[in-house]
Structures are given as C-alpha cells and as structure tokens.
Design goal:
Blueprint (H helix, E strand, L loop, with lengths): L1 H20 L9 E3 L4 E3 L2 E3 L20 H4 L4 H21 L4 H14 L10 H15 L6 H15 L12 H20 L10 H10 L6 H13 L11 H16 L17 H12 L9 H22 L50 H4 L7
Antiparallel strand pairs: 1-2, 2-3
Helix pairs in contact: 3-4, 3-5, 3-6, 4-5, 5-6, 5-7, 8-9, 8-10, 9-10, 10-11
Amino acid sequence: ILSRLSALLCRSMLSFVANMAAVPISAVPNTSTNNDGILIGDRVYSEVYLTISNSLIPEERLQPTPSMLDGLDLHTETDLRILGCELIQSAGILLRLPQVAMATGQVLFHRFFYSKSFVKHSFEIVAMACVNLASKIEEAPRRFRDVINVFHHLKQSHRGKRSASSLILDQNYINTKNQVIKAERRILKELGFCVHVKHPHKIIVMYLQVLECEKNQTLVQTAWNYMNDSLRTNVFVRFQAETIACACIYLAARALQMPLPSRPHWYLLFGATEEEIKDICITTLKLYTRKKPDYDHLEKEVEKRKMSLQEAKLKAKGLNPDGTPALSNLGGFSPGSKPCSPNVVKVEDKSPNLQALNPVKKEPNSRAQGSKSPHNG
C-alpha cells in the first residue's frame, strides 16, 4: 500500500510540473511596481518593506512619547526603560541565554514602548514577552514557566527580600502566562513582525581590525562594555549599528587615552559623523550619573497615572469614580429638592380658593365632586 501511495504521489507531482511547464507566457499575471504599490493584473496592492532602516524611529516620534501623552514625565519613563532593560539582562543571565538574545530583547522593549504607553501596558509583562520572543528569534527558546519563575525571583530581589519564596502554580500563574502570551502577540503586531535587530558586536571587532587595534584586548573589552550598557538607552532605535560601533570605539579610546587617526577622522571612513558620535557618547555617559531606579516607586507612579486616566474617562462619560452617575449632569435634579409629596398642597402658596384647604366630605354617589379630587387631576 505504501509503495502504491508513493507511486501515485510521484505521478501527481510529475503531472503538476508538466502542467506548469505547459502554461503559456500570456497566462502569467502581469506584475509591476509603481509609487502607490504593486500592480497585479488590474488591481494595485500596497507594499510592505521589511528592512532594518524602517525599524529606526524618526525624531518627531521621540517626543512626545505615548507615555508622555498619558501624563508620565520623561524622567520616570527613562527610569522605566532602564529598569526593564536591566530585568531583561538579568533574566537572560539566569536563563543562560546568549548575549545577542538579551540585546535583541532590550531593543524590542524600546521599540514597543515608542508605540505604546507604560501607563496602559505593564513593563514587567512586556519584558517577559521580549525575553521569550528574543529567545525564539536567536534560536535559543526557553519555557514560559522558566521565564516567569526568573522574573518572580528578580522582583523579590529588587524589593530586598532575603528569603525568596518559590513560584506557586496557581490561578495567578495561569493569568500571568496568558498575559505574557498576549503581550508577545501585541509586540509582533505593533512592530509589524519586523523584529530583526542588527547588533554591533561583530562590527566593533571588524572596525578595530581595520584600525589595527584588535590585539588590544582592553580596548576591545571596553568598547564591548560600552555597547552593552548603551542597550539601556534609546540609541539602538535612533542610529544605525555601524554608527553605534564607531561611538563605542571612540568612547573606549577616550577612556583609555589611546590616540586614533584624526587627519582625517577615522570614523568618517565608516560613514559616521561627529554629531552622531557625540550624541551617542553623551547619552551613554548619562547612564552612569543616574540613580538606580526604585521598583516600588515606579510602580506607584504608574498606578497614579493609571487612576487619573480612569477618572478622566469616567468624568468625560458623566460618571463618578465609583461608577455612579454624576448629579451635575442631571440638570440640577436632586432627590432632596422637593421636601414634600406632590399630593400635599403647601399652606404658604396663595390660592384664590381658600376653601379648598378645608376638608370636604366626599359623597359616594356624586361624580361631580369626585372629579374635583387632585388625584383625578
């Protein structure tokens, strides 16, 4: 039976190839490109460019960021970015991931939060998703349980707990796992599945070989360290990898007081400019002057902004913070505005018929007097 099935499969494949070879040239759909998209037949389809240059964020999107539009200041957002990248780096070390996977996760973390806000998305959940996604991209996958367990341990160590408790596989763990899976899909959607990252690790070594400085292990290691530290900043979403490599070599040479060719400047050979080099160096050196971000303080700041956004949304809908309708939107109506029942006539109101205030005996057979009752209008 298996031999017959294989023979039938071979015959069908041969007939398919023969039929494709017999198709005339006129039957092939006419495809061409124009400025608006790709013309296939009589319809124009839009083009999708997946290149590394598209992953760089333009200057107009750097400020204001979505987090700033939600009320978060630049200092707090920078601390959140640094803390998220530190968590990714520490989790990668505990998970024994290669350095390139940790670098990819940090770059994806920066890219995502230039499209979404820290107020609306938990940076810890997104960091877990970036680690899991980067491990798949760099062909070193890890289990969800291991990633969540490592982040649980790191969160306790950041809060200064000496006796760390183990992760319990309860409903909270299942909810966290589902949130990480959804966050990973959201990252892919926001980035348009363009998750390729070009790292300057090999570029640094290649440029030092051109400069004949590759034998200086101190210079190579210092430039490598500056490059790893700059992953916590936004330079990897603003500049090309070649420019970042030149800036790290420049910064390492200045720190070690090693002269490099300056007539002309050596980085001009690799397409970098002096302005870009200085911008990357200043941004990297600012990391060493900042205080260590406080985990609990940042969570409280994000929670405050989240609560203020929810109150603003409820106020726009005419609701109180507890969800009840606001009285100011009901036209001044209040249940306590009328102290008495509408069936009771006030004595202070002047009426032309004063005898209407005196009680009147109703006659059961008199329909005329019954019609004068206020209950019947």
